[in-house]
Write a structure and sequence with these properties.
It contains three helices and five strands, in the order E-E-H-H-H-E-E-E. With about 100 residues, it is an alpha+beta fold.
Length: about 100
C-alpha cells in the first residue's frame, strides 16, 4: 500500500534513528508497527477512519452545546459556530 506520506521522516523511539512512514507501515512484513499512530499523529492523520470518527463526534458535541469554536486556520475573525449541513458541517464566522 502506497501513501502520500511514505517519504516523510520521523525519529523512531524504538530504534532511536530516523525512519520513513513507509518503513512503519511494513515493519512486520505486511503489518504496521503497533506504535504507528502514537509516533505519527502529530504529523498527519495516520488513521484516517479514526480521525474522521473523532472529528465527527467532536463536531456533533460542539453543535449540540452551541459552543463557539476557534482555530488558527479559520477565516478572520477566526471564531464562530458549527451547524449540521447534510452529512457534514458548515462553519459560520463570528456567529
Amino acid at each position: 500500500m502506497e501513501t502520500q506520506h511514505d517519504s516523510k521522516i520521523t525519529r523512531c523511539p524504538k530504534l532511536g534513528d530516523e525512519i520513513t512512514f513507509s518503513y512503519c507501515l511494513r515493519v512486520a512484513g505486511d503489518l504496521p508497527c503497533p506504535r504507528i499512530i502514537r509516533c505519527w499523529q502529530a504529523a498527519f492523520d495516520a488513521d484516517a477512519a479514526l480521525a474522521e470518527k473523532s472529528r465527527r463526534e467532536l463536531f456533533d458535541r460542539v453543535v449540540a452545546d452551541k459552543a463557539m469554536v476557534t482555530g488558527y486556520h479559520f477565516p478572520f475573525p477566526a471564531h464562530g459556530r458549527l451547524a449540521k449541513d447534510g452529512n457534514g458541517f458548515v462553519f459560520t464566522v463570528g456567529a
